[in-house]
Write a structure and sequence with these properties.
mainly beta; two-stranded antiparallel ribbon
Length: about 200
């Protein structure tokens, strides 16, 4: 015998028995993955775990589907269904420096970066670098140029010098080689620029 009150009572009971949604935090290449429950319509808030990336990797944020979030942004996400949140843990690549036979200063320290990161080459101490007499350091190059650039240096060799302040890190380790040029008149400028 069903009455309208029985149906209304059953609907109220069902609403009261709702289950929370399962939120899974997946952490490839790291530690900190966990599963938790969040009520429908609630924000994630402080349930977000701390991620420790494996050696050689860097934690960069969280993704849900195709959307990337910082931890603070993820706290504001409202949960409406079961969901997997995946940590972005990206491989690190090294950026090292080779003095290319020069002396007068130490090579800058090797640093690590993720693919696509904008990196400013390190020029610390390079003003003291020389490669033989009457030479000066003129920059870094991804291509090794063995000899100091002469007064009549080929433009193609000059163009190998990184002339901007940012290098975009590729998905591989990179070595930057010191480039030197002849400065026969000791004016602090490479001779290939003296007539420019």
């Amino acid at each position: 015998n069903e009455t309208s009150n029985d149906i209304k009572g059953a609907q109220s009971l069902m609403i009261g028995l709702q289950q929370p949604h399962t939120v899974t935090f997946s952490v490839p290449n790291g530690q900190g993955g966990t599963t938790t429950k969040v009520w429908h319509g609630d924000k994630l808030g402080d349930v977000i775990p701390t991620v420790t990336a494996d050696e050689g990797y860097r934690f960069t944020g969280w993704t849900v589907g195709d959307t990337t979030y910082t931890a603070d942004q993820l706290k504001e996400v409202v949960i409406s269904s079961d969901v997997t949140v995946t940590a972005e843990v990206k491989k690190l690549y090294s950026l090292s420096y080779d003095l290319n036979g020069g002396s007068g200063a130490a090579a800058p320290e090797t640093s690590t970066h993720i693919e696509g990161e904008k990196v400013t080459p390190d020029y610390t101490g390079t003003g003291k670098l020389k490669k033989g007499e009457k030479t000066i350091f003129v920059g870094w190059s991804k291509t090794q140029i063995e000899k100091a650039l002469p007064e009549d240096a080929a433009q193609a060799d000059i163009d190998k010098i990184i002339s901007h302040d940012e290098h975009i890190m590729p998905a591989q380790d990179v070595t930057l080689y010191a480039v030197y040029a002849v400065d026969a008149n000791d004016n602090g400028n490479p001779d290939y620029n003296d007539d420019a």
